[in-house]
Specification:
Elements (H helix, E strand, L loop, with lengths): L2 H22 L7 H21 L7 H27 L22
Helix pairs in contact: 1-2
Amino acid sequence: MGDYKRQLLIWFCLMVLLAATFSSAWLELGFWNTFVNFAIAAIKAALVVIFFMHLRRGSRAIRVAAFIALFMISLLFVISGSDYATRQVQSAPWQAPQQLSSAITVQR
């Protein structure tokens, strides 16, 4: 298959996945909607990285650099998520706002 036809096929797959993303927003999947959308996004990202960024034919150094970047961003998300999940909610002290009507005098 020629390079032009392959890129056209990958573009078509990306458009189908875009339609799947759009249509999944209208489905009542509840909790699973997030996982479905993340799975579709991961497939789209993999197609772009492998075919359009030429990672499939890249050198070993480029593949290692891409893997390390993916690992580091994953580590960032995991650490941020665990920090958010383990925080305790502390309510801030609240004061009633001062009334401005007593401070403003009406001139007649």
